[in-house]
Design brief:
By secondary structure, the protein is mainly α. It has one domain. 72% of the residues lie in helices and 0% in strands. It is built from 4 helices and no strands. The longest helix has 27 residues. It is globular, with a radius of gyration of 15 Å. 5% of the residues are buried.
Length: 104
Amino acid sequence: MSKTISGTASSEMLLWEFDRNTLVFLDTLARMRSLVPTLNQKRVERVQRDVEQLRLDALTAEFREAVPDIEPDYELLKLVGINPAGTVEEDGMRLRQALEERFR
């Protein structure tokens, strides 16, 4: 049987830190792509996809543990995550960007 993800303050803090640091890494990676055009773009894209998927897997597992009767909305988890330190303005900005990309 697998261990639960949350349940202690330290595991909740670890999940929060993972979510926050993953977002910081993805933002830094995106900025590096534009600043260093000699980077292998396909490799950077692959790393970005892998890290985004790993983050989504962790968020989904936490959500399913907290609310087992509800299927998680992957797009919402991807955009908002579990980062309570994020402001409503930041969440709104990410939602707007996602909608713009989706409907271009």
